Amino acid sequence: MTSAAAQTPSTPPAGEMTALLVAIAGARDKQLFAKLFDYYAPRIKAYLMRRGTSAAAAEELAQETMLIVWRRAASFDPAKASAATWIYTIVRNLRIDAHRKTLHPLDTNDPAFLPEPQLAPDAILHNDQLEARVREALRQLPEEQAVVVKLSFFEDKPHGEIAEQLSLPLGTVKSRLRLAMRRLQPLLGDE
């Protein structure tokens, strides 16, 4: 029995699915996508269930996979992989992501997920005044010191990276920061 004779009408050749995916990428044809979806979605679900995913989760992952296939069809390259290989790579990645989420679920009580508290009007006014004082103090610095302070404190760059960006020796960057801080201290006080 040849491989062509072994194929049933419900199992199209791999090349046909690859051509179908290429056509979807080019035409964004919903009818062609429905054909691809009808073929792959149940197979993806069965694949996931064989690997221990619950039926509900497998259904959700299959839907998500096919949505990604629709959105990223233009990035499919038939020279690199067949449609099945490309689609099952998406499935595999989604399954790994889902597994990671179950291992490390998000703790919604974590303070990082809480919204920032609203500042009282007097605190907002204080912050605005402080920001104006800092801006004015920075304007009073020599340009070479102000640049180093801005890169260090506002862009949070390490001294070595600042030295590289400005083409300066590391010692020069540190000296400019020290001089700037000495000049800013009397202007800003404890702020």
Features:
single chain; 191 residues; mainly alpha; Rna Polymerase Sigma Factor, Chain: A; Arc Repressor Mutant, subunit A; 9 helices; 0% strand; elongated
What does this structure look like?
With 191 residues, the protein is an all-alpha fold. It folds into 2 domains: 10-103, Rna Polymerase Sigma Factor, Chain: A, CATH 1.10.1740; 121-188, Arc Repressor Mutant, subunit A (Orthogonal Bundle), CATH 1.10.10.10. The protein has 9 helices and no strands. Helix 2 (14-27) crosses helix 3 and helix 4 (55-72) packs across helix 5 (83-103). It is elongated, with a radius of gyration of 30 Å.
Overall structural class, as computed from helix and strand content, comes to mainly alpha
Which fold name corresponds to the CATH topology of the largest domain? Rna Polymerase Sigma Factor, Chain: A
Number of helices: 9
What is Rg?
30 Å
CATH superfamily heading of the largest domain: RNA polymerase sigma factor, region 2, helix turn helix motif
The proportion of residues forming helix, as a percent range, comes to: over 70%
The geometry reads as elongated
- Please report the distance between the alpha carbons of the first and last residues: 85 Å
* Average pLDDT over all residues: 85
Number of strand elements: 0
Tell me the domain tally: 2
Instruction: Determine the strand fraction and express it as a percent band.
Output: under 5%
Poorly predicted parts: 1-9
